[in-house]
Amino acid sequence: MSTLVPFNLLSLSLPMLRNFIDIMPLKDLYTLRKNSDKITSLSHFRGDIVQILSIITDNVEPWDDKLVRYSDYMNQAVVKPYSIIYVYMGSDICPEALLAKMEEQVYHFVFLADEYDWKQVITFLHAGVTNLNTSGIMHLPEEDMETFLKRLSNYKVKDILFSDRNCVKIWFDTACKTWNSLIGTFFKTVEVGDHYPGKLMAITQDDAKIELYMNYKIDVDLSDDEFIDDNVDES
Questions:
Q1: CATH number where 69 lies
Q2: Segment 73-83, tens digit of pLDDT
Q3: Residue 231 located in a structural domain
């Protein structure tokens, strides 16, 4: 997501530029920092935006020293803004409390793992999220699928990947049905990918592009003749 400034920001006098940086939302400041060393230098007083935050439930032992226990995170006095968040969920993690510790939600990439509810996935989303990846087990009852997929589309997340162990074809079929029902109101077009059976591509009314990938499980009947190798000795 680009940050548009209707004038040459660097042409401002130093006091005016400093005031501008002081009130600029962190998510916009982060984008400008990536494109200007001067902005980076002048905005040090706003603090750093750390690249990755990896939080893990207290219910398991961390396997990497980069993982932060949920309780340790919640006990921090100051939480820096992050660009990417990985959350290894557990029954002790409250997404609302976790996010409330952040001064501002500037992260653009969300990765959720282990076991969680679909409503918790929605809680982690905001307008600046461009990538969402999930794995593990997402509790998504069939009667909630349409609601989940409609709420998910509202955030216009550019790339979505569901690799949950319980992801099955009905998830994808429901996504196709639900998003197609929004053509003319929310979406302009919705198409199924040609070379990837679990890919859905959609264009919103304001020309935002959304790509949804689902690594759903396929039941294969190995007794079918087409799966029997002629070279296998069945004796």
A1: 3.80.10
A2: 999 876 777 88
A3: no
